[in-house]
Amino acid sequence: MTVDNKIRVLVSKIGLDGHDKGAMLIASILRDAGMEVIYTGLRRTPTQCVNTALQEDVDVIGLSILSGSHLTLVLKVIELMKAKGVDDKKLIVGGVIPDEDIPKLKDMGVDAVFTQSSTYLEMIDYIKKATGKEDAST
Amino acid sequence: MELVEKILNGDIASAARLITMIENNREDAARIIKKIFYHTGNAYIIGVTGSPGVGKSSLVSDMINVFRKRGDTVGVIAVDSSSPFSGGALLGDRIRMQDHEVDPEGVFMRSMATRGNLGGLSSATRDVCYVMDAMGRDVIIIETVGVGQVELDIVNMAYTSIVVIAPGMGDSIQAIKAGIMEIGDIFVINKADHEGVDAALSDMEYMLHIGADKKEWHPEIFKTVATENKGIVELVEGIDKHRKYLEDNGLKSKKFYSMEQLIDLIKKRIEKRILDNKLGKDNIKKHINSILKKEIDPYTVADMILDDAGL
Fold first, then answer.
1. CB within 8 Å: B26 and A37
2. Chain B positions touching chain A (beta carbons under 8 Å)
3. Contact indicator for B102, A47 with CB cutoff of 8 Å
């Protein structure tokens, strides 16, 4: 019954991309790290994603994009986050992201990008530090 | 108290933030609920419960469509279990409710983890109902975690409790018989296009028949196919009928606040006052060490702590 600051993370698949094994794996890993993960399912629009983030009051929005349209989709999400006043949430992107696009995403306002070469621990560590709720699992 | 006004005006971002404060068990959340409580009691609270995999989320999504068509605004609280090992949770009820994500003014949905609470609901659920009620939501639907036989909290919170089963899940009635047959105001056999629906129906009718003469309200059984939107309008009419029964007999206001709810809250407040404010984790650890060394027994420790708190 003590104050219990759980980290809440939205894991979302946006755009026309029918593969969510990766997103589901990430969701399970974050759950096992003590976080509450809201998974939206496949083929969501940026509007659905941002509306969900607002209602669920998550600390982190995690987008998994394998379709190659990450630059367009992420820009749309960031615009909507600003419009709805939820741009205080951390935005992280993962999936198939070419190296040369990582700085472009960060310029748009993405807080972190995790690709195939990233480890789980890097991601968990990043989320705990970025949200300031490091002891999520205790 | 700007937050209170925003919530009374239906502001989603403020409500979402207050719900987080409630979930995190923060004292400032209690201060706000004290204020918004006076603006609650208008929403109609419906509980949906049943074993995992019977189609509760799909059914809730269909029910939302019917309520939205008549112009009702809806709040949804979808509860899933927390892992007892990591404390984390995977909340996936939104997967079946995506249609409503483009209607944020009409449908406000919140996923909640049980955070160690037994009973099929999070201990914060009642407070979250107050928030959605004060926001002006006409209908609140609470979807519990898949229940077994002991998770029956919903009956103390919802005006109408709906128990969902699916045919062909072994002996479907056996799985839900104790307790849960008694809490349903309405029963739904979902996946009614599957084999075994007639057997499930007759089993259920038999179970409900036993002891039926003791009750004023005779639960109706509905057959639905949530994935095809079949039988949903009839189900919502059934909810209306139960609502009218409660209202006509003066039972709705009694259900709004029960003795169980107050006792539950008192326990929570005692826990907060004694464990958090007075004792603290370090002291608890010290007591546990003494118990482990057999210097003292646990009952004496517990009584000592309560004596110190003046109880």
1. no
2. 12-13, 16-17, 19-20, 23-26, 82-83, 86-92, 94-95, 98, 101-102, 104, 108-111, 113, 115, 268, 271-272, 275-276, 281
3. yes
Query: Contact B90/A1, CB-based, under 8 Å?
Result: no
A27 and B CB contact within 8 Å: yes
Q: Are B23 and B115 in contact (CB under 8 A)?
A: yes
Interchain contact A40–B (C-beta under 8 A): yes
Which residue, A26, A4, A7, is CA-closest to A128?
Answer: A7
B59-75 average pLDDT score? 95
Write the CB contacts of B112 (distance below 8 Å, at least 6 apart in sequence): B23, B77, B78, B79, B80, B91, B122, B124, B125, B128
State phi, psi for B79 to the nearest 5 degrees.
-105, 130
- Give residue A134's pLDDT: 64
Domain range list for chain A:
8-130
Query: By three-state DSSP, how is residue A38 classified?
Result: strand
How large is the ipTM?
A: 0.86
CA of B92 vs chain A CAs: smallest distance (Å): 5
Partner-chain residue, chosen from B13, B98, B268, that has the shortest CB–CB distance to A1: B268
Long-range contacts of B201-208 (CB under 8 A, 24+ apart): B203/B171, B203/B172, B203/B173, B204/B165, B204/B173, B207/B173, B207/B177, B207/B181, B208/B181
Select from 3.30.450.20, 3.30.1490.180, 3.40.50.280, 3.40.50.1240 the CATH code of A8-130: 3.40.50.280
Interface size between A and B, measured as CB pairs under 8 A = 109
B276: which DSSP letter?
I
**Domain B40-254 is classified in which CATH homologous superfamily?**
P-loop containing nucleotide triphosphate hydrolases (3.40.50.300)
Question: What is the residue-wise DSSP string for B169-193?
Answer: SSSHHHHH-TTHHHH-SEEEE--TT
Could you tell me the pLDDT band of residue B177, with boundaries at 50, 70 and 90?
A: low
Is A16 a residue whose pLDDT tops 90?
no
pLDDT by residue (tens digit) across B30-49? 999 999 999 999 999 999 98
Q: Do B86 and A137 touch (CB under 8 A)?
A: yes
* Amino acid occupying residue A51: N
pLDDT in tens, B270-304: 888 887 777 777 888 899 999 999 999 999 999 99
Q: Å from B194 to nearest chain A CA?
A: 25
